[in-house]
Every structure is written in structure tokens, then in C-alpha cells.
Design a protein that fits this description.
This protein is mainly alpha-helical. The protein has a domain of 70 residues. Helix 3 runs antiparallel to helix 4 and helix 3 crosses helix 7. The longest helix has 18 residues. The N and C termini lie far apart (48 Å).
């Protein structure tokens, strides 16, 4: 309820935005639009993957790299899971994608998941 009241107060403030404010809003909208197809929200609609790849986990690591600039952290996490053997490795290694496309048909954001998995592996591989 507090948020609704705060939003109502903000909406009721008279006046117009300055040119600088309009430019900042426009720049933010353009950036959000540009990034919309790149970032997974972790909804897990793409799961289960027939190859048992943990797509949301991999995209979370990619977000550390791409959004927050925490590339060393992302690479370290990716390396730690890729270096393991067996089930964990397959689940967390983007290179295991066989491009069946099942994930993409289920993604509500229409992310090009197969391309993103390739990009993830190329950017983070040990």
C-alpha cells in the first residue's frame, strides 16, 4: 500500500520534465530495449533441457560478466563447474547444447538461448 501511495504522490506532482530528464528517460528506455533479449529472468520455463543443461544458472553467470562486470568471478564459477566430472559438468557446461530448440520455444522472453549458450561458453570457458 505504501508503494501505491508513493506512486500516486509522484504522479500528482505538477509540471513537466526538463529536457535533461527527458533525455535520461529516453536513454534508459533505449538501453532496456537493447538489453531485453539478452537477460534471462530465471523463470525456468526453458527447463527441463533434454541435455540436462542448467540454462538459468549459466545465464546467471553470464549476467555477472555482462551486467556487473564481474568477469573473473563468472569465469571462476564456470571453471569450477566445468572442471567437475559427471552430472554436474553436463548440467553446467554450455558446450553440451545440441541445438534442439526446445528451450527457445518455451522462453516467454524469446531469448535466442542456443546463441546465448554459445556466447556464454565462449566468454567464460576456462
Amino acid at each position: 500500500m505504501n508503494e501505491v501511495e508513493e506512486n500516486a504522490r509522484a504522479a500528482s506532482v505538477g509540471g513537466v520534465l526538463t529536457q535533461e530528464e527527458l533525455e535520461r528517460v529516453d536513454a534508459m528506455l533505449k538501453e532496456n530495449k537493447r538489453l531485453a533479449e539478452l537477460y534471462c529472468t530465471g523463470c525456468k520455463y526453458c527447463m527441463p533441457c533434454p541435455q540436462e543443461i542448467n540454462i538459468p544458472n549459466l545465464f546467471s553467470l553470464m549476467n555477472f560478466h555482462r551486467v556487473y562486470g564481474l568477469t573473473d568471478h563468472a569465469k571462476g564459477q564456470y571453471k569450477s563447474v566445468v572442471d567437475h566430472t559427471g552430472w554436474d559438468k553436463k548440467q553446467n557446461d554450455a558446450s553440451h547444447c545440441v541445438e534442439c530448440g526446445q528451450c527457445e520455444s518455451k522462453c516467454p522472453q524469446h531469448i535466442k538461448i542456443m546463441d546465448q549458450l554459445k556466447e556464454t561458453h565462449a566468454a567464460l570457458k576456462p
